[in-house]
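Quick board copy: two proteins, each given as sequence then tokens.
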Amino acid sequence: MKTLLSYMIMLMLLLPACSDSEGEKISVNIKQTSFKFEKEGGSDILEILSNTDVTVRSTETWCKVTDHTSSSTTRQYKITVESNPSQEIRHAKLIVTATGFEEQIPVEQATAPEEKGKYIVRKNLTTQELVNEMGLGINLGNTLDAVGDWINPSSILNYEQAWGSPVITKEIIEGYAKAGYSSMRIPVSWSNLMSADYTIHPDLMDRAETILNWVLDYGMVAIINVHHENDWVKKVPTDAEAKKKFTSVWEQISKRFEKYGDLLMFEPMNEIGYDEIWTPWNGSQANKAKAFGYVNELNQLFVDIVRSSGGNNAKRHLLVEVYNTGDSYAYDPLTKIPTDPANRLALTVHYYAPALFAILGNGEDGGWGIGVPSWGTAEEIKELNDAMEALKKNCVDKGIPVIVGEYACSSKDRTQEVVRLYCVSVTEAIYKNGMCPMFWDVPGAGQYDRLTYKFKDPIFLKEMMAIPAKYPRNKK
């Protein structure tokens, strides 16, 4: 009897406590939703407001959790992360548990930027990030790409000087770099002095590599292409011998430059179109598909050749061209981006609009129109901005990087003020839309003096170099 009475009294004492416990809703309020640490590691505080016991554990040994301070309602835990020795971003989770409660908090730790250098391929560098690094670009125009059957073939340097350029020196390249340019396109006509079996002349190969090294030594990204060879390149999709030549040329280029890292890009050709098949003014939709298809084939063949050459070429960032390098063709449904196992491709387009100002000099008769003296009306500026915004919307925003490999205007019988206005305006429109502008510059009529190693117009250079600061970019 006494035992039963004692049991009943004990039960009565316990009932209110159980009732209070069951009646109070568990509350766990975590103040942080995620943690991010730099490569060096460090520590941070996780704070939890709770009316019940809480445990916190980490899923990874490099991320440790220890008690920091606590009160009746507030608990703090110290999150300590070790230095990240790898070249990969790493992740952990903090598991917060209580009675009937569990939540995961992500922890991310950065890695140090991959080392950048002449012979290094950064495995985590996306093509868009490389485009961002390229900043403002410029062409070494009318130099290694100069052609003509009147040129004295006794020396490869005769070709280099044929269109008005002095022999390129390290100081000339240094001048471009010191001015602020971060990338250089080096157009090359590889057929100059080429042997009958399509072997590139060793002097030309050596010369291209010498200039490339100067470009890379000054920290610029370089592009090497096949230029002014349209007559035979156009035949590649339909002519076995032309295909053999194209394959030989790109196999030789790939082999010679294989050791260079991701600061060197390759570009397959220049302004290839098939006007005899289709133009916007003449030709059926079927003809358009055929013409675009040929350019698509050329791009795929180029990618396949470079990738199969192995070494650094297996991961090299490559340019592929759209039909006639027309800007709106970059997002034409008939333009097919090649299959690429490395997924490291960018599209390249050119911008020479309006043609009566950009291509023809003032008063110059091109047979299809006469050059106009000026540019810069509200309508013309809108045309420019609409074109670049369309490239951003249809390509860049969809993960397709774009390089505007050429743009400029004729300075013939025009003031420097209007030339400057056009060139700076186009540069800004390209850059602010996430693409790389590569100004077409040539000896004599261009903006850079290859004899003094300086730009002729200080205002031109100042306005150009102010553009990147206005539109900061994320770079590796």
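And the next:
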Amino acid sequence: MTTRESLLTTQGKIFQPPTSTGMADVLKSLNLLETLKESIDNNKLSDVKDAVEDLLISRINLAVLGDREDRKTTLINSLSGLGPEDEGAAPSPSPVAPEELASYPNPKHPDFRLWDLPAVPSATPFEPEGYLERVKFFRYNAVLMTFTQTPHPNTVKVFLEARSSQRQIVYFILLATDTDTEKGLEEKRKASMETLKSEGVAHLKVYLVRPSTLEKFDFPDLLEDMGRDLPEIRANALLLALPTLTPTLVTQKKDAFKALVWAAASLSGGVSAIPVPFVASMVDSSVAMRILTKAQLSLCLDNESVERLARQRGIEPTRLKGLRTCELSVEVTKGEVKKRLAAAEKELATVSSKLVEMAMPRHARSVSRSFAAMLQALNGAIDEMAADAEKVVAVALGEGK
């Protein structure tokens, strides 16, 4: 297995917050520390570059299966952070023929694509293999099987057929309305579990999800399970593309970007060893711009995302916009990025020498200056942007209660 493959095939959770031991834990969760150190030590900078590219651009296809009705459409749009009036949103009623597929790429994260799969036919006899082939079931990284009462037996047959392949990640989702009572929802969940059990499905969860407010009910648990079930690079792509629904998601996104920053800083340190003037600085600012731009969009700090969130939660947009105190939260500019990199160069004395020694191979410590500067500049920026996102989410959730 190549170094790059070892970076991308690890199974793992959606990123958990680091403990007191700091960045080493974040990197350990990504399986980057040892592989990147090995790559740099062996002068395999192309492997490090590929790893950074794959963390920045990683495709994920998420399918939502079920009847085409308002709750399912709302779920698809909420997963992209969109309202029904936003450009790129799934329309309701759907103009797509009942038996056809519909695709909805995320406007801000084109590597995240949502698929609207038609409901499983209720006719008998029913051959699940035909349905799986018609909707191209196995090309999706995960499938959400939605229903509003109990899953139809034919849907369960599709699940069992897909599960038998041992290469498909499928979840049952009970969609709630804003008017459903807690008692009524639990009764529906219980009936759903009994239906699944009678059809031969054991030890399976039914996730209760309210499409209009995903932070409620079981959606956070669903995300945690998806992070564990998906290959790590796909879990990372899903995490970065989802809207900032909860403070926990903001923290997880921050930690994911810090791991990406470490990889980019390692690349910077390696490039600095090449005796070509200005090469490192050009690479640093270019990669830093890409990382911070993606972080701004992932944390939903750009003007369009903040205005959309304010509209959805009935808040004056200027109130949420005013919570952004970091310049990079408002706009990622080359001038601001270069200024931060230059400032970090002057403040290298504040960087722990232990961190540099841990991160860089012995023969490369002479080029650790570039590594440390980029690490300090970008980590500081990510911390500030995440703090802004936490404030925005807190106010939005508070107003939405």
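Board note added afterward: The longest strand covers residues 60-65.
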